Protein: Pyruvate carboxylase, subunit A
Organism: Methanobrevibacter arboriphilus JCM 13429 = DSM 1125
Amino acid sequence: MFDKVLIANRGEIAIRIMRACRELDVKSVAIYSDADKTSLYTNYADERYALGNPSPSKSYLNIDKIMDIAIESGAEAIHPGYGFLAENSELGKQCEKNGITLIGPSGKVIESMGDKITSKKLMKKAGVPVIGGTENGVTDIDEAVKIAESIGYPVIVKASAGGGGIGMRTVYEEDELIRAIESTQSVASTNFGDSTVFIEKYIEKPRHIEFQILADDHGNTIHIADRECSIQRRHQKLIEEAPSPIMTEELREKMGESAIKAAEYINYTSAGTVEFLYSEGEYYFLEMNTRIQVEHPITEIITNIDLVKEQLKIASGKELGYSQKDVKVNGHAVECRINAENPLADFAPNPGKITGYRSPGGPGVRLDSGVYMNYSIPTFYDSMISKLITWGSNRNEAISRMKRALSEYIILGVKTTIPFHKAIMRNNHFLSGDLHTHFVDDYRKGIDDDIREIMEEETERINRMRSTFMPGKKVAAISAAVGSYLNTAKNQQIKK
Protein backbone atom coordinates (compact mmCIF):
# COMPACT_ATOMS: atom_id res chain seq x y z
CA MET A 1 0.00 0.00 0.00
CA PHE A 2 1.09 3.58 -0.62
CA ASP A 3 2.61 5.66 2.18
CA LYS A 4 1.26 8.97 0.90
CA VAL A 5 -1.46 10.02 -1.59
CA LEU A 6 -2.17 13.48 -2.98
CA ILE A 7 -5.86 14.28 -3.48
CA ALA A 8 -6.22 16.48 -6.57
CA ASN A 9 -9.63 17.80 -5.57
CA ARG A 10 -11.53 19.75 -2.94
CA GLY A 11 -14.64 19.73 -0.75
CA GLU A 12 -16.59 16.67 0.33
CA ILE A 13 -14.95 14.26 -2.13
CA ALA A 14 -11.50 15.21 -0.81
CA ILE A 15 -12.64 14.39 2.72
CA ARG A 16 -14.20 11.12 1.51
CA ILE A 17 -10.88 10.02 -0.03
CA MET A 18 -8.93 11.12 3.03
CA ARG A 19 -11.16 8.97 5.23
CA ALA A 20 -10.33 5.93 3.13
CA CYS A 21 -6.63 6.80 3.30
CA ARG A 22 -6.78 7.13 7.08
CA GLU A 23 -8.41 3.71 7.48
CA LEU A 24 -5.60 2.22 5.39
CA ASP A 25 -2.89 4.12 7.34
CA VAL A 26 -2.02 6.17 4.25
CA LYS A 27 -1.02 9.82 4.69
CA SER A 28 -3.04 12.31 2.65
CA VAL A 29 -1.92 15.51 0.95
CA ALA A 30 -4.42 18.31 0.31
CA ILE A 31 -4.09 21.06 -2.28
CA TYR A 32 -6.10 24.26 -1.99
CA SER A 33 -6.68 27.50 -3.87
CA ASP A 34 -6.92 30.89 -2.21
CA ALA A 35 -10.71 30.47 -2.16
CA ASP A 36 -10.35 27.24 -0.14
CA LYS A 37 -7.93 28.41 2.56
CA THR A 38 -10.56 27.88 5.25
CA SER A 39 -12.15 24.75 3.76
CA LEU A 40 -12.68 21.83 6.10
CA TYR A 41 -10.81 19.30 3.97
CA THR A 42 -7.54 21.23 4.21
CA ASN A 43 -7.47 20.62 7.96
CA TYR A 44 -8.49 16.98 7.62
CA ALA A 45 -5.40 16.12 5.56
CA ASP A 46 -1.99 15.24 6.97
CA GLU A 47 -0.31 17.85 4.77
CA ARG A 48 -1.57 20.83 2.76
CA TYR A 49 -0.10 22.85 -0.12
CA ALA A 50 -1.32 26.11 -1.64
CA LEU A 51 -2.26 26.44 -5.30
CA GLY A 52 -2.81 30.20 -5.28
CA ASN A 53 -5.20 31.74 -7.81
CA PRO A 54 -8.73 30.35 -7.28
CA SER A 55 -9.55 30.19 -10.98
CA PRO A 56 -9.94 26.45 -11.81
CA SER A 57 -7.59 26.71 -14.79
CA LYS A 58 -4.86 28.08 -12.52
CA SER A 59 -5.53 25.82 -9.54
CA TYR A 60 -7.36 22.46 -9.64
CA LEU A 61 -6.88 22.09 -13.40
CA ASN A 62 -3.22 23.13 -13.37
CA ILE A 63 -1.50 19.78 -13.98
CA ASP A 64 2.05 21.18 -13.89
CA LYS A 65 1.54 22.82 -10.50
CA ILE A 66 -0.16 19.74 -9.05
CA MET A 67 2.63 17.47 -10.30
CA ASP A 68 5.23 19.78 -8.73
CA ILE A 69 3.41 19.54 -5.39
CA ALA A 70 3.13 15.76 -5.68
CA ILE A 71 6.88 15.49 -6.24
CA GLU A 72 7.72 17.99 -3.48
CA SER A 73 5.46 16.24 -0.96
CA GLY A 74 6.77 12.78 -1.80
CA ALA A 75 3.33 11.49 -2.75
CA GLU A 76 3.46 8.12 -4.49
CA ALA A 77 -0.01 8.40 -6.01
CA ILE A 78 -2.66 10.94 -6.99
CA HIS A 79 -6.39 10.46 -6.52
CA PRO A 80 -8.36 12.88 -8.76
CA GLY A 81 -11.80 12.30 -7.18
CA TYR A 82 -14.54 13.43 -9.57
CA GLY A 83 -14.72 16.56 -11.71
CA PHE A 84 -11.69 18.74 -12.47
CA LEU A 85 -8.91 16.36 -13.67
CA ALA A 86 -10.73 13.10 -12.92
CA GLU A 87 -11.19 12.22 -16.60
CA ASN A 88 -8.20 14.08 -18.03
CA SER A 89 -5.91 11.72 -19.90
CA GLU A 90 -3.02 14.20 -19.72
CA LEU A 91 -2.87 13.79 -15.94
CA GLY A 92 -2.35 10.06 -16.46
CA LYS A 93 0.45 10.71 -18.93
CA GLN A 94 2.18 13.14 -16.56
CA CYS A 95 1.86 10.71 -13.66
CA GLU A 96 3.47 7.97 -15.72
CA LYS A 97 6.25 10.33 -16.83
CA ASN A 98 7.06 11.26 -13.22
CA GLY A 99 6.78 7.77 -11.72
CA ILE A 100 3.58 8.57 -9.80
CA THR A 101 0.58 6.25 -9.76
CA LEU A 102 -2.75 7.63 -10.93
CA ILE A 103 -5.55 6.09 -8.88
CA GLY A 104 -7.80 5.27 -11.78
CA PRO A 105 -7.59 3.72 -15.25
CA SER A 106 -4.80 4.41 -17.72
CA GLY A 107 -4.64 7.65 -19.70
CA LYS A 108 -5.35 5.66 -22.87
CA VAL A 109 -8.58 4.25 -21.44
CA ILE A 110 -9.65 7.67 -20.15
CA GLU A 111 -9.04 9.14 -23.59
CA SER A 112 -10.99 6.44 -25.42
CA MET A 113 -14.00 6.67 -23.10
CA GLY A 114 -13.89 10.46 -22.91
CA ASP A 115 -14.74 10.76 -26.57
CA LYS A 116 -18.35 9.71 -27.09
CA ILE A 117 -17.88 8.78 -30.75
CA THR A 118 -14.89 6.55 -30.02
CA SER A 119 -16.51 4.99 -26.95
CA LYS A 120 -19.68 4.20 -28.89
CA LYS A 121 -17.66 2.46 -31.63
CA LEU A 122 -15.76 0.43 -29.04
CA MET A 123 -18.93 -0.63 -27.24
CA LYS A 124 -20.52 -1.69 -30.51
CA LYS A 125 -17.49 -3.90 -31.21
CA ALA A 126 -17.69 -5.26 -27.66
CA GLY A 127 -21.27 -6.38 -28.26
CA VAL A 128 -22.85 -3.85 -25.90
CA PRO A 129 -26.19 -2.40 -27.13
CA VAL A 130 -25.82 1.16 -28.48
CA ILE A 131 -28.30 3.78 -29.70
CA GLY A 132 -28.55 4.28 -33.47
CA GLY A 133 -26.81 7.37 -34.83
CA THR A 134 -23.67 8.72 -36.50
CA GLU A 135 -20.45 6.77 -36.17
CA ASN A 136 -18.27 9.81 -36.89
CA GLY A 137 -18.28 13.49 -36.06
CA VAL A 138 -20.68 15.71 -38.00
CA THR A 139 -19.16 18.61 -39.93
CA ASP A 140 -21.36 18.85 -43.01
CA ILE A 141 -24.88 20.22 -42.45
CA ASP A 142 -26.37 18.52 -45.54
CA GLU A 143 -24.98 15.22 -44.33
CA ALA A 144 -26.44 15.87 -40.88
CA VAL A 145 -29.90 16.45 -42.37
CA LYS A 146 -29.73 13.16 -44.26
CA ILE A 147 -28.57 11.28 -41.16
CA ALA A 148 -31.37 12.72 -39.05
CA GLU A 149 -33.93 11.76 -41.68
CA SER A 150 -32.60 8.21 -41.84
CA ILE A 151 -32.66 7.83 -38.05
CA GLY A 152 -36.01 9.57 -37.69
CA TYR A 153 -36.89 12.54 -35.51
CA PRO A 154 -36.53 13.36 -32.69
CA VAL A 155 -32.73 13.23 -32.58
CA ILE A 156 -30.23 14.56 -30.08
CA VAL A 157 -27.08 16.55 -30.88
CA LYS A 158 -24.20 15.95 -28.47
CA ALA A 159 -20.64 17.14 -28.01
CA SER A 160 -18.20 14.29 -28.56
CA ALA A 161 -15.88 15.49 -25.78
CA GLY A 162 -16.79 16.34 -22.20
CA GLY A 163 -19.85 15.28 -20.27
CA GLY A 164 -22.57 16.38 -17.87
CA GLY A 165 -25.00 17.09 -20.72
CA ILE A 166 -23.17 20.33 -21.58
CA GLY A 167 -24.32 21.66 -24.96
CA MET A 168 -26.74 18.79 -25.55
CA ARG A 169 -29.73 19.74 -27.74
CA THR A 170 -32.88 17.77 -28.62
CA VAL A 171 -34.24 18.34 -32.14
CA TYR A 172 -37.79 17.51 -33.26
CA GLU A 173 -37.71 18.80 -36.85
CA GLU A 174 -35.29 19.73 -39.61
CA ASP A 175 -35.58 23.51 -39.10
CA GLU A 176 -34.13 23.15 -35.61
CA LEU A 177 -31.22 20.91 -36.60
CA ILE A 178 -28.83 23.49 -38.05
CA ARG A 179 -29.21 25.83 -35.07
CA ALA A 180 -28.73 22.92 -32.67
CA ILE A 181 -25.53 21.79 -34.37
CA GLU A 182 -24.07 25.30 -34.43
CA SER A 183 -25.02 25.88 -30.79
CA THR A 184 -23.55 22.59 -29.58
CA GLN A 185 -20.36 23.14 -31.59
CA SER A 186 -19.91 26.55 -29.98
CA VAL A 187 -20.52 25.29 -26.44
CA ALA A 188 -18.27 22.25 -26.99
CA SER A 189 -15.43 24.38 -28.33
CA THR A 190 -15.66 26.77 -25.37
CA ASN A 191 -15.92 24.11 -22.66
CA PHE A 192 -13.83 21.24 -24.05
CA GLY A 193 -11.63 22.76 -26.75
CA ASP A 194 -13.19 20.35 -29.26
CA SER A 195 -16.17 21.36 -31.44
CA THR A 196 -16.88 17.85 -32.73
CA VAL A 197 -20.54 16.85 -32.43
CA PHE A 198 -22.55 13.77 -33.31
CA ILE A 199 -26.20 12.84 -33.76
CA GLU A 200 -28.12 9.92 -32.34
CA LYS A 201 -31.72 8.80 -32.02
CA TYR A 202 -33.51 10.51 -29.15
CA ILE A 203 -35.31 8.15 -26.78
CA GLU A 204 -38.40 9.68 -25.23
CA LYS A 205 -38.56 9.53 -21.44
CA PRO A 206 -35.91 6.86 -20.74
CA ARG A 207 -34.67 5.81 -17.33
CA HIS A 208 -31.01 6.48 -16.53
CA ILE A 209 -29.56 3.33 -14.99
CA GLU A 210 -25.88 2.78 -14.29
CA PHE A 211 -23.69 -0.07 -13.10
CA GLN A 212 -20.71 0.29 -10.79
CA ILE A 213 -17.60 -1.55 -11.98
CA LEU A 214 -14.47 -2.68 -10.13
CA ALA A 215 -11.53 -4.17 -12.04
CA ASP A 216 -7.94 -4.95 -11.09
CA ASP A 217 -4.70 -5.57 -12.97
CA HIS A 218 -5.00 -9.33 -12.46
CA GLY A 219 -7.87 -9.93 -14.88
CA ASN A 220 -10.72 -9.65 -12.37
CA THR A 221 -13.75 -7.53 -13.26
CA ILE A 222 -17.05 -7.41 -11.39
CA HIS A 223 -20.08 -5.14 -11.18
CA ILE A 224 -21.31 -3.78 -7.84
CA ALA A 225 -25.01 -3.64 -8.73
CA ASP A 226 -27.07 -0.82 -10.20
CA ARG A 227 -28.22 2.72 -9.49
CA GLU A 228 -31.18 4.75 -10.77
CA CYS A 229 -30.24 8.33 -11.69
CA SER A 230 -33.30 9.57 -13.60
CA ILE A 231 -34.14 12.64 -11.47
CA GLN A 232 -32.11 15.33 -13.25
CA ARG A 233 -32.09 18.99 -14.18
CA ARG A 234 -30.32 20.04 -17.36
CA HIS A 235 -28.87 16.51 -17.60
CA GLN A 236 -27.28 16.89 -14.15
CA LYS A 237 -28.33 14.33 -11.52
CA LEU A 238 -30.17 15.54 -8.43
CA ILE A 239 -31.43 12.35 -6.75
CA GLU A 240 -30.11 8.81 -7.07
CA GLU A 241 -31.19 5.52 -5.57
CA ALA A 242 -29.93 1.97 -5.44
CA PRO A 243 -31.10 -0.39 -6.65
CA SER A 244 -33.35 0.87 -9.46
CA PRO A 245 -37.06 0.44 -8.57
CA ILE A 246 -37.58 -1.60 -11.76
CA MET A 247 -34.59 -3.89 -11.31
CA THR A 248 -35.06 -7.65 -11.23
CA GLU A 249 -32.39 -10.28 -10.70
CA GLU A 250 -32.69 -11.30 -14.36
CA LEU A 251 -32.33 -7.73 -15.66
CA ARG A 252 -29.46 -7.01 -13.27
CA GLU A 253 -27.61 -10.08 -14.49
CA LYS A 254 -28.14 -9.11 -18.13
CA MET A 255 -27.18 -5.44 -17.77
CA GLY A 256 -24.37 -6.30 -15.38
CA GLU A 257 -22.88 -8.69 -17.92
CA SER A 258 -22.96 -5.91 -20.54
CA ALA A 259 -21.21 -3.55 -18.12
CA ILE A 260 -18.49 -6.12 -17.42
CA LYS A 261 -18.14 -6.82 -21.14
CA ALA A 262 -17.64 -3.09 -21.74
CA ALA A 263 -14.95 -2.81 -19.06
CA GLU A 264 -13.09 -5.94 -20.12
CA TYR A 265 -13.05 -4.94 -23.80
CA ILE A 266 -11.07 -1.77 -23.03
CA ASN A 267 -8.87 -3.40 -20.33
CA TYR A 268 -10.37 -1.20 -17.65
CA THR A 269 -8.93 -1.07 -14.12
CA SER A 270 -10.09 0.72 -10.93
CA ALA A 271 -13.64 1.85 -10.14
CA GLY A 272 -15.79 3.03 -13.03
CA THR A 273 -19.39 3.35 -14.08
CA VAL A 274 -21.14 2.14 -17.22
CA GLU A 275 -24.26 4.21 -17.85
CA PHE A 276 -27.30 3.02 -19.79
CA LEU A 277 -30.58 4.45 -21.02
CA TYR A 278 -33.48 2.05 -20.41
CA SER A 279 -36.81 2.23 -22.23
CA GLU A 280 -39.60 -0.25 -22.91
CA GLY A 281 -37.59 -3.29 -21.89
CA GLU A 282 -34.46 -2.34 -23.86
CA TYR A 283 -31.24 -0.72 -22.68
CA TYR A 284 -28.49 1.13 -24.55
CA PHE A 285 -24.95 2.23 -23.70
CA LEU A 286 -24.82 5.95 -22.89
CA GLU A 287 -21.28 6.55 -21.65
CA MET A 288 -18.62 5.31 -19.27
CA ASN A 289 -17.37 7.44 -16.39
CA THR A 290 -13.73 6.59 -15.75
CA ARG A 291 -13.73 7.77 -12.12
CA ILE A 292 -15.51 7.47 -8.81
CA GLN A 293 -19.07 8.80 -9.12
CA VAL A 294 -20.73 11.45 -6.97
CA GLU A 295 -23.42 8.89 -6.13
CA HIS A 296 -21.06 6.07 -5.10
CA PRO A 297 -22.22 6.12 -1.41
CA ILE A 298 -25.59 4.51 -2.19
CA THR A 299 -23.78 1.55 -3.75
CA GLU A 300 -21.48 1.30 -0.73
CA ILE A 301 -24.43 1.29 1.64
CA ILE A 302 -26.41 -1.50 -0.06
CA THR A 303 -23.37 -3.73 -0.69
CA ASN A 304 -21.11 -2.87 2.28
CA ILE A 305 -18.18 -2.41 -0.12
CA ASP A 306 -15.90 0.63 0.34
CA LEU A 307 -15.30 1.66 -3.28
CA VAL A 308 -12.62 4.26 -2.55
CA LYS A 309 -10.58 1.84 -0.46
CA GLU A 310 -10.87 -0.69 -3.28
CA GLN A 311 -9.55 1.97 -5.69
CA LEU A 312 -6.53 2.51 -3.48
CA LYS A 313 -5.89 -1.23 -3.14
CA ILE A 314 -6.21 -1.85 -6.88
CA ALA A 315 -3.85 1.04 -7.70
CA SER A 316 -1.27 -0.39 -5.29
CA GLY A 317 -1.31 -3.68 -7.20
CA LYS A 318 -3.57 -5.78 -5.03
CA GLU A 319 -6.22 -8.15 -6.34
CA LEU A 320 -9.89 -7.42 -5.84
CA GLY A 321 -11.11 -8.42 -2.42
CA TYR A 322 -14.44 -9.58 -3.86
CA SER A 323 -15.78 -11.91 -6.54
CA GLN A 324 -19.12 -11.46 -8.28
CA LYS A 325 -20.81 -13.98 -5.99
CA ASP A 326 -19.71 -11.91 -2.96
CA VAL A 327 -21.75 -8.91 -4.12
CA LYS A 328 -25.10 -8.93 -2.31
CA VAL A 329 -27.74 -6.20 -2.44
CA ASN A 330 -29.10 -5.42 1.02
CA GLY A 331 -32.00 -3.01 1.30
CA HIS A 332 -32.38 0.29 -0.50
CA ALA A 333 -30.57 3.65 -0.45
CA VAL A 334 -31.46 7.15 -1.63
CA GLU A 335 -29.10 10.10 -2.16
CA CYS A 336 -30.07 13.77 -2.39
CA ARG A 337 -27.48 16.23 -3.68
CA ILE A 338 -27.79 19.34 -1.53
CA ASN A 339 -26.70 22.26 -3.69
CA ALA A 340 -26.46 25.99 -3.01
CA GLU A 341 -29.10 26.71 -5.64
CA ASN A 342 -32.56 28.25 -5.77
CA PRO A 343 -34.96 25.62 -7.16
CA LEU A 344 -37.64 28.29 -7.73
CA ALA A 345 -35.28 30.26 -9.99
CA ASP A 346 -34.36 27.43 -12.37
CA PHE A 347 -31.71 26.18 -9.92
CA ALA A 348 -29.64 29.34 -10.13
CA PRO A 349 -26.43 29.06 -8.02
CA ASN A 350 -26.52 30.88 -4.69
CA PRO A 351 -23.04 30.88 -3.13
CA GLY A 352 -22.46 32.77 0.10
CA LYS A 353 -21.82 32.45 3.82
CA ILE A 354 -23.52 29.72 5.86
CA THR A 355 -24.85 31.60 8.89
CA GLY A 356 -26.55 28.63 10.54
CA TYR A 357 -26.02 24.90 10.20
CA ARG A 358 -27.57 21.79 11.76
CA SER A 359 -26.89 18.41 10.17
CA PRO A 360 -29.24 15.41 10.30
CA GLY A 361 -28.45 12.08 11.94
CA GLY A 362 -30.05 8.99 13.39
CA PRO A 363 -30.43 5.40 12.11
CA GLY A 364 -29.72 4.82 8.43
CA VAL A 365 -28.40 8.34 7.71
CA ARG A 366 -25.06 9.24 6.12
CA LEU A 367 -23.93 12.78 5.31
CA ASP A 368 -20.90 13.44 3.09
CA SER A 369 -20.14 17.14 3.50
CA GLY A 370 -17.31 19.64 3.46
CA VAL A 371 -19.02 22.67 5.00
CA TYR A 372 -19.56 24.07 8.49
CA MET A 373 -21.05 27.03 10.37
CA ASN A 374 -19.76 30.39 9.02
CA TYR A 375 -18.14 28.72 5.99
CA SER A 376 -18.37 30.75 2.78
CA ILE A 377 -19.23 28.78 -0.34
CA PRO A 378 -16.92 30.05 -3.13
CA THR A 379 -18.26 31.37 -6.41
CA PHE A 380 -15.59 29.62 -8.48
CA TYR A 381 -16.66 25.99 -8.19
CA ASP A 382 -19.57 23.55 -8.23
CA SER A 383 -22.56 24.50 -6.07
CA MET A 384 -22.71 21.22 -4.13
CA ILE A 385 -22.85 21.60 -0.35
CA SER A 386 -23.25 17.96 0.65
CA LYS A 387 -24.71 14.56 -0.19
CA LEU A 388 -27.43 13.26 2.10
CA ILE A 389 -27.86 9.47 1.96
CA THR A 390 -30.39 7.27 3.72
CA TRP A 391 -30.72 3.48 3.92
CA GLY A 392 -33.75 1.34 4.61
CA SER A 393 -34.63 -2.34 4.47
CA ASN A 394 -36.79 -1.43 1.46
CA ARG A 395 -37.47 1.58 -0.78
CA ASN A 396 -40.33 2.92 1.32
CA GLU A 397 -38.23 2.91 4.47
CA ALA A 398 -35.30 4.60 2.71
CA ILE A 399 -37.62 7.35 1.44
CA SER A 400 -39.25 7.77 4.87
CA ARG A 401 -35.83 8.18 6.43
CA MET A 402 -34.89 10.70 3.75
CA LYS A 403 -38.03 12.72 4.56
CA ARG A 404 -37.07 12.68 8.23
CA ALA A 405 -33.42 13.57 7.55
CA LEU A 406 -34.38 16.46 5.26
CA SER A 407 -36.69 17.81 7.96
CA GLU A 408 -33.71 17.86 10.36
CA TYR A 409 -31.31 19.53 7.93
CA ILE A 410 -31.03 23.29 8.45
CA ILE A 411 -28.74 25.50 6.35
CA LEU A 412 -29.03 29.28 6.73
CA GLY A 413 -27.49 32.11 4.74
CA VAL A 414 -27.80 30.55 1.28
CA LYS A 415 -30.68 29.14 -0.70
CA THR A 416 -30.46 25.36 -1.10
CA THR A 417 -32.21 22.52 -2.90
CA ILE A 418 -33.54 21.06 0.38
CA PRO A 419 -37.12 22.27 -0.32
CA PHE A 420 -36.92 20.70 -3.79
CA HIS A 421 -35.89 17.35 -2.33
CA LYS A 422 -38.70 17.52 0.20
CA ALA A 423 -41.14 18.14 -2.66
CA ILE A 424 -39.84 15.14 -4.63
CA MET A 425 -40.09 12.88 -1.57
CA ARG A 426 -43.82 13.61 -1.37
CA ASN A 427 -44.44 13.38 -5.15
CA ASN A 428 -46.76 10.46 -5.99
CA HIS A 429 -44.99 9.69 -9.28
CA PHE A 430 -41.66 9.41 -7.46
CA LEU A 431 -43.16 7.34 -4.66
CA SER A 432 -44.58 4.88 -7.20
CA GLY A 433 -41.20 4.56 -8.95
CA ASP A 434 -42.52 6.14 -12.17
CA LEU A 435 -39.21 7.76 -13.12
CA HIS A 436 -37.61 9.09 -16.31
CA THR A 437 -35.01 11.71 -17.25
CA HIS A 438 -37.67 14.38 -17.95
CA PHE A 439 -39.33 13.92 -14.57
CA VAL A 440 -38.49 17.39 -13.22
CA ASP A 441 -39.58 19.20 -16.39
CA ASP A 442 -42.80 17.21 -16.80
CA TYR A 443 -43.94 17.72 -13.22
CA ARG A 444 -42.33 21.12 -12.66
CA LYS A 445 -45.50 23.05 -11.82
CA GLY A 446 -46.60 20.58 -9.17
CA ILE A 447 -43.08 20.41 -7.74
CA ASP A 448 -42.82 24.20 -7.54
CA ASP A 449 -46.25 24.42 -5.89
CA ASP A 450 -45.11 21.88 -3.31
CA ILE A 451 -41.89 23.85 -2.70
CA ARG A 452 -43.94 26.97 -1.95
CA GLU A 453 -46.16 25.01 0.43
CA ILE A 454 -43.09 23.51 2.11
CA MET A 455 -41.59 26.95 2.64
CA GLU A 456 -44.81 28.15 4.25
CA GLU A 457 -44.73 25.12 6.54
CA GLU A 458 -41.13 26.00 7.40
CA THR A 459 -42.26 29.46 8.50
CA GLU A 460 -44.66 27.90 11.02
CA ARG A 461 -41.96 25.51 12.25
CA ILE A 462 -39.52 28.40 12.72
CA ASN A 463 -42.05 30.26 14.83
CA ARG A 464 -42.44 27.19 17.06
CA MET A 465 -38.67 26.92 17.48
CA ARG A 466 -38.24 30.62 18.28
CA SER A 467 -38.01 30.33 22.06
CA THR A 468 -36.49 26.86 22.40
CA PHE A 469 -34.10 26.17 19.60
CA MET A 470 -32.27 29.18 18.19
CA PRO A 471 -31.21 32.70 19.16
CA GLY A 472 -33.32 35.47 17.70
CA LYS A 473 -30.81 36.39 14.99
CA LYS A 474 -30.84 32.88 13.56
CA VAL A 475 -34.64 32.75 13.61
CA ALA A 476 -34.71 36.05 11.74
CA ALA A 477 -32.21 34.65 9.24
CA ILE A 478 -34.38 31.60 8.58
CA SER A 479 -37.48 33.78 8.22
CA ALA A 480 -35.63 35.99 5.76
CA ALA A 481 -34.55 32.94 3.76
CA VAL A 482 -38.13 31.64 3.65
CA GLY A 483 -39.38 35.06 2.59
CA SER A 484 -36.78 35.21 -0.16
CA TYR A 485 -37.90 31.83 -1.55
CA LEU A 486 -41.56 32.87 -1.52
CA ASN A 487 -40.84 36.27 -3.08
CA THR A 488 -38.90 34.53 -5.84
CA ALA A 489 -41.90 32.30 -6.47
CA LYS A 490 -44.23 35.32 -6.67
CA ASN A 491 -41.89 37.14 -9.07
CA GLN A 492 -41.72 34.06 -11.31
CA GLN A 493 -45.51 33.92 -11.41
CA ILE A 494 -45.64 37.61 -12.39
CA LYS A 495 -43.10 37.06 -15.19
CA LYS A 496 -45.15 34.16 -16.55
User: Anything to note?
Assistant: DSSP finds 17 helices and 20 strands in the chain.
